[in-house]
Amino acid sequence: MNLRRRLLGWRCGAGLLLLAVVAWAAIHQLTQPLWDEPEIVLKMGGTYDDLRRSSSAPFSPEIRGHVWFGIPKVDAKLRFVDPQFGFTTPAARFFTVDFDDNVIFGIRMSPQIEPLLIDDALKVVLDLQDQWREKGWVAKGLQNNPTIVDTPEWRAYLRKGILAGITYWQADEKYQVMLVVGRFEDYRNPTEERYLITLALAKPWTPFDEVEDMYDEPRHFPAPQPK
Hints:
By secondary structure, the protein is α+β, with helices and mostly antiparallel strands. The protein is built from 5 helices and 10 strands; from the N terminus they run αβαβββββαβαβββα. The strands form 2 sheets. It has a 7-stranded antiparallel beta sheet.
């Protein structure tokens, strides 16, 4: 009798476990399309509520009445919304959105999940520059910070690890972006050359048209100039 009760109890427990697994699988199947490509969708001057409504990635709680920054709760790509100047990035692990009260005024992120090999890092950088160029962004500060290209000279410059490659782009008087790629010591891959990309986006903060000719002293480690 005891054995029979145990068998019955085991079957009930197994049945409940199977039901739970099936239910979890069904829920996962229904929600998975939403999470294949988690993204943060935002526009400059938009609100926290707009971001939460438009994005498929969960976001940190709002802090009203302060200048603050929020972060996605999962790795997420950026879809920057603008009728002319919009662009997208690969998924990012470091990703912050700056708010003044609940209004978006800036973005700082690293459009990658982990430090990248130089081939992969340059692929990300060149894709972003191509998007900006095609959408009408204009490279700025070229005298000291030329656009980054995949050449032996640029690879050698970045491998030194002394200075990072920096490029600035501007969209009329609406936005300015700074893109940086530099060598990074990755403790998980100590024998490999890894690189970190940083992207900062806000309203224009450097008046290049006014200051570009003020600094004409040569750098000790100048970035490769276009041929």
